[in-house]
Design a protein that fits this description.
- The protein starts with a helix and ends with a helix.
- With 164 residues, the chain is mostly helical.
- It is rod-shaped and about 130 Å long.
- The chain contains 4 helices and no strands.
- The protein has a domain of 102 residues.
Length: 164
Amino acid sequence: MEHFIRSLKVFWRSEKLLKQNEMRLVAQKIQCNALAGLVALFGLVMLSLSVFFALVPHMGHALAALTIAATDLVIAGALVAYANTLKPAPEAAMVRDMRDMAVSDMEYELAKAEAEFNELRNEARRFVRNPIDALLPAVISPLVGSVAKGMLSPKKKSSKTAAH
């Protein structure tokens, strides 16, 4: 049972570490995607402005706004690509292995406890159905030992009395 408790603690700690790592990774991805969304929004605004300025007879302002919008969109795309490349930390694999070992240890301990329980249940059933057969092996051994001692003791006494 002690081994089961230790395995349960290892399982709990490894699950906790895996979830913390997963939450950190998700938070980073959300932050990068939010920043990319903000930059894309600015790019869209600038693109709209550039179209507006393109219609204005002065083409200088439109080309500047179009350049800024394209730059903003490229930055947003780079941030999204970076967010999608984020992977779990290397220690997460080690923690996952420890969690899997703890789970297999717990499964083994539970199977062993179940087998012991089934054996105890079967013995209890045998005792309830036929108590004499269940108790007989436990009683016969001491009884045979006592009879054997009893049979040997009178011979020793008779040999001692015969010697006197």
